[in-house]
């Protein structure tokens, strides 16, 4: 028999009220077990239970996965999450602030995967190979600044070697600003407005989760690509020796698109690979001062 949940007082504060209403939403859905809910939310039962525990604000992705699985109003809960997250966010220092520009979306317009989840930055790592967090499909891609996009896809001497990949066909970096929907193209330059996160897995180093390795997918572009969505634990890390290694990999023909670069305090991604030629997976690794995380990879997705 499952252990009863700790009672919540919705008057005790915004976090308690948030979790209390998540539980009510689950009750309205027929009170499915968290194990049953996990089948639809693509998160573990333990993660879903923590989301409604009231101890900390769950990530936006986890919240929306919970809400969607219970048949709730995604837009309403997204607004509620941002309201609480803005209250909890500490004042940013000048070191991490970029000047606003006309093309930079406001916080309210920022899609779910653009906001580093602040609440689950330093959870205890469970035993075994690493805690996996499978993300449900949600959200749309938001363009980053042009300067960032160029920095992410250009290598001085071609793609770096990645000994942990079994790719035999490594695509060269793109050399055109305007690109077609072809293997190796930069998804930000191609422009795939329907892009969503198909699946993802957290990247851990020691006992800290530093971000989510995501496999982005666009039905319009018939392509998928690897992307790292960093958590606040990585963005606010004081080390200047952080590197990001990503690979978009298609096992059917051993084709890969790779990046190996210094962390830019923002999202990183590799080139896109077409999914009509075979399933595509994402691989990734974070290194901080020569301490490397395990190489993580998503399941292979073909649409």
UniProtKB/TrEMBL annotation:
Keywords: Membrane, Transmembrane, Transmembrane helix. The keyword Oxidoreductase does not apply. The chain crosses the membrane at residues 134-155. Residues 99-120 have a biased composition (Pro residues). InterPro entries: Cro/C1-type_HTH (IPR001387), DUF2690 (IPR021224). Residues 21-77 form the HTH cro/C1-type domain. The keyword Membrane applies. Residues 87-130 are annotated as: Disordered. This is Helix-turn-helix domain-containing protein. It comes from Streptosporangium jomthongense. The lineage of its organism: Bacteria, Bacillati, Actinomycetota, Actinomycetes, Streptosporangiales.
């Amino acid at each position: 028999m499952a252990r009863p949940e700790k009672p919540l007082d919705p008057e005790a504060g915004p976090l308690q009220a948030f979790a209390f209403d998540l539980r009510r939403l689950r009750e309205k859905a027929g009170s499915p077990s968290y194990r049953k809910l996990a089948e639809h939310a693509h998160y573990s039962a333990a993660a879903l239970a923590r989301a409604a525990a009231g101890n900390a604000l769950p990530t936006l992705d986890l919240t929306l996965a919970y809400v969607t699985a219970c048949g709730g109003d995604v837009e309403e809960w997204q607004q509620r999450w941002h309201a609480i997250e803005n209250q909890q966010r500490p004042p940013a220092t000048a070191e991490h602030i970029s000047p606003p520009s006309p093309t930079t979306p406001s916080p309210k317009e920022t899609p779910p995967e653009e906001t580093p989840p602040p609440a689950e930055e330093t959870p205890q790592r469970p035993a075994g190979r690493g805690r996996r967090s499978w993300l449900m499909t949600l959200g749309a891609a938001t363009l980053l600044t042009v300067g960032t996009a160029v920095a992410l896809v250009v290598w001085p001497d071609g793609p770096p070697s990645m000994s942990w990949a079994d790719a035999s066909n490594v695509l060269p970096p793109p050399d055109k600003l305007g690109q077609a929907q072809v293997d190796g193209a930069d998804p930000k330059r191609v422009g795939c407005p329907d892009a969503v996160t198909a699946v993802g897995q957290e990247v851990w180093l020691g006992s800290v989760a530093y971000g989510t390795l995501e496999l982005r997918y666009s039905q319009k572009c018939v392509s998928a690509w690897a992307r790292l969505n960093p958590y606040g634990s990585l963005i606010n890390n004081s080390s200047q020796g952080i590197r990001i290694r990503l690979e978009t990999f298609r096992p059917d023909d051993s084709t890969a698109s790779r990046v190996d670069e210094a962390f830019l305090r923002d999202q990183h991604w590799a080139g896109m690979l077409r999914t009509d030629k075979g399933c595509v997976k994402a691989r990734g690794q974070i290194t901080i001062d020569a301490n490397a995380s395990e190489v993580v990879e998503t399941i292979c997705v073909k649409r």
